[in-house]
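Technical annex, item 7. During the second reporting period the consortium partners agreed on a shared format for inverse folding records so that results from different sites could be compared directly. Each record opens with the tokenized structure and is followed by the designed sequence. A conforming record, contributed by the partner at site C, is shown below for reference.
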């Protein structure tokens, strides 16, 4: 497993991270979740991503149990705050109250004294940026958080946060967590341009487009039983990719992957890692063998001919419009 710096920070992360959205506490039983984390550790993954909202806080609890007993200094635990985690009016957003309380609750569920990377899961239009950034900065100064990041923020929102942090002398954002894959490339213009200039790394989610880029979904056929497309929580997110046109193009990528000595999933993950702005790609899994297969994308270098073939096949199915960045109702 290769490691990369998270932006221009001193923190190194495994270039393939393990994430537990939908799976832990929801799609798979706890013993399967524990086995997947064990496989990730065995394969050299050191970076683990979760969020307080995943599976109604249960995902953090399962991850904490899975990492219990692992040398704390050997792993990087990343979690997030924003979405509702309770019925109260202050159980959501990026107010000082919710940020501080959520951090304490995440620490308890994760069974740890500190969070390596604490991320604002969305931009909060109802809370002043200075309030949010001061709350994050206080957590850093208290040693409860080491680094601060965001998830699915637009370029102008990231720029505004950097300006406020610089003016007030607060801890700066070091990472952004956007969706990014062969089909969904909306960050490539505005977001990546800003982040590279400011030293912010991308920890990308959905490198295999919720499983579509594995090739397991066939055009004109029923979705595989037990797949993300048939799960209550995941079906809404994956539906964007389940058109016959996209599924047909994905099948046409199979010879490209085979010629590169990769599976379709490995090709997809490796593709995201070719972008120097990407610090890590997050994979999920319901079985340990999926972890073991996908980590083989680490260290893979795709030549120009392979990259061109991918672009030629996907063609007009590639989405690049930055206006689609951070649609609150359609991102995990």
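Designed sequence (site C submission):
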């Amino acid at each position: 497993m290769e490691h990369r710096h998270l932006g221009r920070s001193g923190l190194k992360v495994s270039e393939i991270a393990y994430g537990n959205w939908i799976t832990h506490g929801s799609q798979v039983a706890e013993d399967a979740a524990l086995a997947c984390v064990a496989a990730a550790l065995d394969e050299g993954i050191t970076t683990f991503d979760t969020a307080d909202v995943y599976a109604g806080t249960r995902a953090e609890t399962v991850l904490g149990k899975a990492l219990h007993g692992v040398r704390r200094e050997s792993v990087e635990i990343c979690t997030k705050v924003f979405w509702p985690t309770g019925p109260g009016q202050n159980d959501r957003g990026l107010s000082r109250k919710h940020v501080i309380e959520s951090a304490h609750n995440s620490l308890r569920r994760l069974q740890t004294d500190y969070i390596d990377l604490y991320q604002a899961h969305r931009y909060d239009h109802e809370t002043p940026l200075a309030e949010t950034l001061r709350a994050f900065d206080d957590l850093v100064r208290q040693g409860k958080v080491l680094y601060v990041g965001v998830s699915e923020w637009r370029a102008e929102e990231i720029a505004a946060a950097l300006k406020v942090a610089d003016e007030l002398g607060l801890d700066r954002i070091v990472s952004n967590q956007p969706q990014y894959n062969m089909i969904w490339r909306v960050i490539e213009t505005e977001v990546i341009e800003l982040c590279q200039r400011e030293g912010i790394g991308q920890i990308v989610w959905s490198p295999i487009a919720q499983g579509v880029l594995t090739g397991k979904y066939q055009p004109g056929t029923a979705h595989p039983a037990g797949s993300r497309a048939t799960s209550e929580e995941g079906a809404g997110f994956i539906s964007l990719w389940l058109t016959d046109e996209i599924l047909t193009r994905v099948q046409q990528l199979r010879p490209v992957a085979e010629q590169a000595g990769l599976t379709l999933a490995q090709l997809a993950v490796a593709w995201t890692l070719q972008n120097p702005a990407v610090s890590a790609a997050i994979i999920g899994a319901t079985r340990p063998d999926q972890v073991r297969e996908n980590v083989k994308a680490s260290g893979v270098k795709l030549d120009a001919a392979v990259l061109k073939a991918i672009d030629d096949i996907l063609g007009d199915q590639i989405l690049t419009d930055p206006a689609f960045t951070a649609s609150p109702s359609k991102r995990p």
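The radius of gyration is 19 Å. The chain has a mean pLDDT of 91. All partners now use this format for quarterly exchanges.
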